[in-house]
Amino acid sequence: MLAVSRADARAFLLRAFALDGFQTLPTVADAVETLGFVQEDSINVCGRMHDLVLRNRVQHYRPADLSRYLYGEPRRAFEYYLPNLCVLPLADYPYFLPAMRSRRDADGRYGKLSPEEEAAASVLLSAIDTSGAIFLRDTKGIGDAHGHTVSGWGTRTRLLSFVADKLFWHGTLGISRRDGFLRSFDRAENLFPAAVLNAPVLEGGEATRQLMRKKLQSRRLFRLRAVEKAALGENETMPVLIEGDPKPWHILTDDLPLLTNPAPSAPPTLFLLAPLDPLVYDRARTRFLFDFDYTWEVYVPEAKRKWGYYVLPVLLGDRLVGRIEPRVDKTGAVRVVSQSWESGFDAGAITDPLAERLAGLTTPSHPPRRD
Fold this sequence. Notes:
The chain has helices at residues 6-16, 28-35, 49-55, 63-71, 93-103, 115-131, 140-143, 159-170, 188-191, 194-197, 206-219, 226-232, 256-260, 283-290, 351-359, and strands spanning 2-4, 38-39, 77-81, 85-89, 134-135, 148-150, 156-158, 173-179, 182-187, 237-242, 249-252, 270-272, 312-316, 319-328, 334-341.
């Protein structure tokens, strides 16, 4: 069993997650391949989740770069759930086909369509076939007659909107483009190559194995469950003993060179991390390796919040040194709502780089919050 220090483990994660320097990756495609996927989120306080993740890694990043990667021709990526909504490289699409196809005939909330949903789906697909990709906001005249239902969030929604979501889960529809975070839907065959959509069904649990591997790639350093080890096989992962913890962690075997071949030391780089950045996504790992407690409190009632509504962890080198809550107002100006620093850290030492990172949250191509 390989034994490493906590400092070695932190350095490994920084390299694996492309945080060993600011904007070191040439393109969005490089970032998605490196991370495995990028999780999306609609909330826009100081930039959306996916933009915050990519801004730290991609050279001269602008949100339009992600749109070109997702919706440009030819298509190089798609959006789907793993289990949250993510940006994924198009090469991964066949891994999702078995689940997409099985849902069409399965029971459950996003399973087969009811007779009422079939009628709404027919109307929606007919509108797409007639006019092309469509935003649901433009279906008021054709969908209202189908009534309402309960959304996946437990709220009242139009049946036509819920059916569009089911057809997306089924792989019948894909996202053609977005306006802000609003989706324009089109038939999958109008968006993606036939060779991708008609790929042979992976047998023997291979699709499940590949998706499990991708999830572990997104974590890099993880506790390995028995079911994961059984599905992946003996040689796909290896245990790592980190000082101060008698219980082993694991890495993918392919990541061994990243762990054992440290890069030359560089001056500490400052980052404002997204709340769900892969470096801090595993809260228990963050506490153990970085001695840093962090919770994304956007869904925590205000009276129970410890840090704030949309707080970004502050990374300096291999230390998480504080938390800051920036907001971009309607004029595009950045306002700091709150900030807190770890015991013994002098925030005055990072005044200039912090101001630079805050200013980078808003650019001419990154419009201010409108919600």
